[in-house]
């Protein structure tokens, strides 16, 4: 029997349907798991994604792209192949793609996390014959504390900064992480001041009907007094930039799963590191593989060799696959 999905130089390919999932080279038909740049690239002729991803794809790739959205669990037929989207919990609109051909179901999970952050949707394990999983944090050392505890630490940090007369700056990826931070810190009553990259994504989501707190775009004219009693949220690329100098004196906090490892915060000249990730930790990855009931697992970007070997040693056929994923800022901070 021919595999439902194959791995090619252009991306994950479905021969029976003649489409690709998250292709990294331009193709005719692209099925997209989510709107991060390493999974949703410009140049494809037709795009298919979850309904919630449509405005984000248009933001990233242009309003004129040919894009179709499907609801959760809704089936779409392409050349007789059945496709459905299921919540991945990674960010708003992120989906796992289930592809069924002749009674065989494969699931390409894209990026996912198993803890519900209150905004990105509840992760849904999908039963399948073959599962394609990421492994960004595929090492036993990566074990996330509950989200409530992490945000409690952030709140205390902000209070300590205020007591010391410092402004609070949190670094998080502009699409996904930034919205998660604001959504879960809005009860503090602080004003959110944001970098332009975050503002654009925020405005797109507000127009799409998402219930997010108001933000203020930081410009050259933003009064310094607005920095007080506020939380500044910026992308990681602004660290150690001239853009940051306007906030002095300030304390810098980096929000990333990589902060689980001691020394990473110091390497980025950060005052605090919060190990909050939009990817599954080691237990989340293993638990998901088990819940899918998959007879075979393909492991993509991250610590793929480690996870694949562990699964093999525990009786689950697994294989490491090289892809072009994992180039988003989450992987660099």
Describe this structure in words.
The chain folds into 2 domains: 6-141 and 279-331, Metallo-beta-lactamase, Chain A; 147-274, Rossmann fold (3-Layer(aba) Sandwich). Strand 5 (46-50), helix 1 and strand 6 form a beta-alpha-beta unit. Mean pLDDT is 95; it is low at 329-333. It has 333 residues and is of the alpha/beta class. The radius of gyration is 20 Å and the shape is globular. The strands form 3 sheets. It has a 7-stranded mixed β-sheet, covered by helices on one side. Strands 1-2-3-4-5-6 form a 6-stranded mixed β-sheet, covered by helices on one side. Helix content is 21%, strand content 25%. It has helices at residues 54-61, 147-163, 177-185, 196-207, 264-267, 282-292, 304-313, and strands spanning 6-7, 12-14, 19-21, 29-31, 46-50, 67-70, 75-78, 81-87, 95-101, 104-108, 130-135, 167-171, 191-194, 216-217, 230-234, 250-255, 272-274, 296-302, 318-320. The chain starts with 5 loop residues before the first strand and ends in a 13-residue tail after the last strand.
**Poorly predicted segments:** 329-333
The CATH topology of the largest domain is given as: Metallo-beta-lactamase, Chain A
Domain tally: 2
Give the N-terminus to C-terminus distance in angstroms.
Answer: 42 Å
Strand content: 25-35%
**Average pLDDT over all residues:** 95
CATH class category label of the largest domain: Alpha Beta
Give the name of the CATH superfamily of the largest domain: Ribonuclease Z/Hydroxyacylglutathione hydrolase-like
Query: How are the strands of the biggest sheet laid out side by side?
Result: 7-8-9-10-11-18-19
Main sheet makeup: 7 strands, mixed
- Shape category: globular
Q: Quickly count the helices.
A: 7
CATH-derived architecture of the largest domain: 4-Layer Sandwich
Order of helices and strands: EEEEEHEEEEEEHEHEHEEEHEHEHE
- Strand tally is 19
**Class per helix and strand makeup:** alpha/beta
Radius of gyration: 20 Å
Q: Estimate the helix proportion, in percent.
A: 10-25%
């Amino acid at each position: 029997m021919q595999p439902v999905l194959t791995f090619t130089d252009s991306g994950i390919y479905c021969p029976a349907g003649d489409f690709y999932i998250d292709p990294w080279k331009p193709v005719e038909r692209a099925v997209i798991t989510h709107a991060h740049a390493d999974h949703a690239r410009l140049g494809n002729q037709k795009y298919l994604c979850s309904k919630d991803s449509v405005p984000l794809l248009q933001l990233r790739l242009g309003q004129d792209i040919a894009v179709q959205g499907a609801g959760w669990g809704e089936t779409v037929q392409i050349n007789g192949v059945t496709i459905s989207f299921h919540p991945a919990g990674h960010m708003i609109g992120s989906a796992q793609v289930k592809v069924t051909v002749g009674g065989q179901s494969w699931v390409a999970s894209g990026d996912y996390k198993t803890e519900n952050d209150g905004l990105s949707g509840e992760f849904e394990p999908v039963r399948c014959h073959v599962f394609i999983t990421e492994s960004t944090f595929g090492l036993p050392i990566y074990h996330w504390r509950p989200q409530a505890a992490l945000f409690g630490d952030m709140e205390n940090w902000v209070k300590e900064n205020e007591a010391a007369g410092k402004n609070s700056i949190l670094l998080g990826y502009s699409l996904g992480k930034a919205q998660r931070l604001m959504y879960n810190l809005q009860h503090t009553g602080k004003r959110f001041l944001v970098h332009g990259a975050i503002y654009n994504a925020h405005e797109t989501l507000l127009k799409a009907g998402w219930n997010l707190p108001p933000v203020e775009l930081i410009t050259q004219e933003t009064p310094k007094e607005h920095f007080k009693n506020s939380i500044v949220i910026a992308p990681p690329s602004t660290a150690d930039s001239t853009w940051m100098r306007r906030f002095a004196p300030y304390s810098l906090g980096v929000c990333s799963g990589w902060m689980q490892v001691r020394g990473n915060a110091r390497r980025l000249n950060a005052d605090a590191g919060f190990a909050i990730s939009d990817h599954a930790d080691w237990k989340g990855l293993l638990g998901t593989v088990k819940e899918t009931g998959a007879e075979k697992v393909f492991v993509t970007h991250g610590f793929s060799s480690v996870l694949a070997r562990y699964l093999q040693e525990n009786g689950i056929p697994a294989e490491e696959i090289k892809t072009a994923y994992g180039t988003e800022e989450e992987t660099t901070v």
